[in-house]
Amino acid sequence: MSKPVSLRPTRPTGPDRPLGSLAGLLRDWLPRQRWFAGKDRPVTDLSVLSQTELFPGCLHLLIHAGHGGVPSPGGTPPTGDCYQLLLGVRKQRAPRLDRAFIGRAEEGPLAGLAVYDALYDPRAAQLLLERLRRPGTVGPLRFESDPAAEVPGGLAPRLLDAEQSNSSLVYGDSYIFKVFRRIQPGVNPDLEVPGALAAQGCARVPAPVAWFRTDEPWPATLGVLQPFLPDAADGWTLALRALAAEDDFTTEAHELGRATAEVHLALATAFPPGVHGETGLAVAAMTARLESAAHSVPALAPFVPGLRTAFAALATCDAGPPAQRIHGDLHLGQVLRAGRDWFVIDFEGEPSRPLSERCSTQSPVRDIAGMLRSFDYAARQRRPWRPEWARRCREAFCAGYAARAGWDPRKKHALLRAHETDRAVYEVLYEARHRPDWLPVPMAAIERLAVRGG
Hints:
Blueprint: H1 19-29, E1 45-55, E2 58-66, E3 81-90, E4 101-104, E5 114-117, H2 122-133, E6 136-138, E7 141-145, E8 157-159, E9 167-171, E10 175-179, E11 182-183, H3 189-199, E12 210-214, E13 220-227, E14 233-234, H4 235-244, H5 250-270, H6 279-296, H7 304-312, E15 335-338, E16 341-344, H8 355-358, H9 365-379, H10 387-405, H11 413-434, H12 440-451
Antiparallel strand pairs: 1-2, 2-3, 3-5, 3-11, 4-5, 6-7, 7-12, 8-9, 9-10, 10-13, 12-13, 14-15, 15-16
Helix pairs in contact: 3-5, 4-9, 5-10, 6-7, 6-11, 7-12, 9-10, 9-11, 11-12
């Protein structure tokens, strides 16, 4: 049986760092990971920003993956992307971990050792939970928890296979631990927002019970443990089931609209309010995202003139509700239904956008537009396409939202069209990079929004 290898000293420097052993392996492995953002660009530069032996046989790394250039000096965040890795190291390759196998190091301090993604290893996952159960420090890593929460030990771990931009471990169907992969300086909103909502008594969002963060190379959130809802199903799965059975989904959509409004109201209380902001800045930002996406996805280029009109209309339309903290990436995969209740999860926002933007106040219409686009996505998973199903769900969601929020998104047509257009542009870029077979779905919305004005 292969045993973990001690990697002490905990934080080697200079030539003892393991990058010489790992650089070649990671250059091949990283672009194949679902959460890696630079799939359309080769990894040309790798550097270790932080290295800690979390426990024997498990190395915690923050690495900078560049596509040309080098990290910024002087302790400032590097250009490019920072990723969090938990790597297991063993003398022998373990057959039960074949799925997690990254490769065998051929040189450097780890030469000859088998390297794998430690989150797939039940032993490593259990030791990670023990770190979360007992607050303390390991090098620059800080493990913290809610003093009122008592997490039992010995919970069996399993790694979720769901396609996502991070990695999640479920412990005994009681807790879910999200390990952030793409790291940016600051407090991650998926820790900040649920904690603030819990303090407000909002039961629509599971509250964090433990988390870990780092102080090096800059303060950042690395992972969050929250209660798991074992009997819940996500909205995407429920919508597809309804479509497959040719069932109506309007009752569920209406209740989801009410739940979304409740979360928005709680957010408006938990965080300082924003202002409408300068319309010119919003138009410029949306237009810049459009032009950047069109440069990367040529199929978008013919629709750019029509899409610009959706953004330009913001200059003369009703400004809508005040800006506030929002979810930032709301869709059917970010909501859970347990019994008759809807819960909202994953407040990280769009990981591709800067953390400062994801933590800023924005129009709640942006969240509404994201959910409306998600109904369209669901409807297009069935053949023939059922546009009426999506239309009814969109209407029901907005009606439910209006009943709780006190204002109706459907009466903010120009504002809603602009945010839905901005969301569809994001979807085009995302699908082109990660799921090219899905590109026709947002492109159909692009054509509708550009040619027929929404």
